[in-house]
Design a protein that fits this description.
The chain is α/β, with parallel strands linked by helices. It is 34% helix and 17% strand. It has a five-stranded mixed sheet. Strands 1-6 form a two-stranded antiparallel sheet. A two-stranded parallel sheet has the order 3-8. The longest helix is centred in the last third of the chain and has 34 residues. The relative contact order is 0.17. Bound molecules: zinc ion.
Amino acid sequence: MTYIPDSAVKFIFVHYSATYDDQVVTAADIERMHLKRGFNKIGYHAFIRRTGTVEPGRDMTRPGKVEQGAQVSGHNHHSVGVCFAGGLKRGHGVNKGFDTRTPEQTEALIAWIDAQLARFGGDGMDPAKGPLVVGHRDAKGAATQCPGFDVAPWWAEVQANRRAAKRPRIGLLAAIVNLLKGARA
Ligand SMILES: [Zn+2]
């Protein structure tokens, strides 16, 4: 097993499994597919089932280092990767990828990315602070539609929505304070 230091992680890659959105797929299924491709185990660091259940892949349990993945050619030495089950729709064949995430998968994906950012640093958008959150297809030289959506703008929106969610609460508090002041005057 090859390990890379936490400090080497520059990218968090998001993948789909290129299986149909009505298929029940587990990390064990992916591992079987990857063993056939000559990998020694599942290539991703985590796998998210349709139900939102997160299954571990490559070893991330050791402090300060992570097992190198086999998920993005040319980028495994400086990245970790997560894969969600899905990406294909019946009637469209295997050559067209879609964002088929269930709400449970999206929620689990956000939580998983948050955990990685807590470990590796940053907000996923500033390479000076930590790894960038991107899609497989954003990797230089990658010829794939995986994971079926633009990850970086999606992640920026997740972060922006969080900031926006915090603001009204502060606004509400200010309104209450003003109301109390007015009542006293
Ligand atoms: Zn991929």
